[in-house]
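Bit of a strange request maybe. I'm writing a small parser for structure token strings and I need a real example to test against, not something I typed by hand. Could someone generate the tokens for this chain?
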Amino acid sequence: MKQRDFQDFFEMCRTRAIMQALEEDRYDGDVTTMATICNGEGGRAVITAKAEGVVAGLGVARQVFSLMDNSIKVSTLSGDGDRVVPGDVVMEVEGSIASLLVAERTALNFMQRMSGIATRTREFVDRIGHTGAKILDTRKTAPGLRYFDKEAVAAGGGKNHRFGLFDLVLIKDNHIDAAGGVGEAVRRAKAYLAEQGISMKIEAEVRSFDELALALDAGPDIVLIDNFAVEDIGKAVAYARERYPDVALEASGNVGLHNVAAIAETGVDYISVGELTHSVTALDLSMTIALEK
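Reply from user aminoacidic:
Good idea to test on real output. This should exercise your parser:
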């Protein structure tokens, strides 16, 4: 059976989004820079953390500067996933002052959003470090920025769930209702993948203990235990482990820092957290330019 490879698609998403971000900012030119900076003037700049957190997006910022002006030299002093405190210099760039100024806000926008996501993800990861559970992201990302949002989750120590609608069969409530039940939906999905010769995992959401039993009997790879109380998640895990120990278990719904440890302690394999990417607080970073002497 064929295994689908999406790496070229991911790289296209990344490059296209960066180019669009640059274009929407400069359009036909940065009038302030053209009016105030002499042609050919060079210098260097440093990007500095102004708050404590986890930095991410260094590679993205490097690509922003490169696509703006491939003569710009970039040096990173931190790596994605590193903790930073106010005053830490995370990147140095050197080249045309005009090019640095045009790229500045685009590079910082990516880095600040990604660092905010990485910082929040690390908080969740640290809360469940005593368990075997993993923190997952969701598709609740900013339109056009999914590649970067998910890269930031990984930098924070989380794991990426499916990228989009094409790389995992995830049977949710509306699919279940339209198909006539979770068991029937799983069976249809398995038949479709077999007919198409596609090697891909199947995950099924369950909303009750009755659906849990039906889903497990149909044989998905992963069961998503959605919006259960913590005590009921524990009961669902015990039921599934006894009967189908090879099926992975994921919990979702109303997950926050206040309860993520308790959810992890039930024995689930994964916990998906929408707030990692849909409620982002950017990490404060700034860029300061110095002229060549």
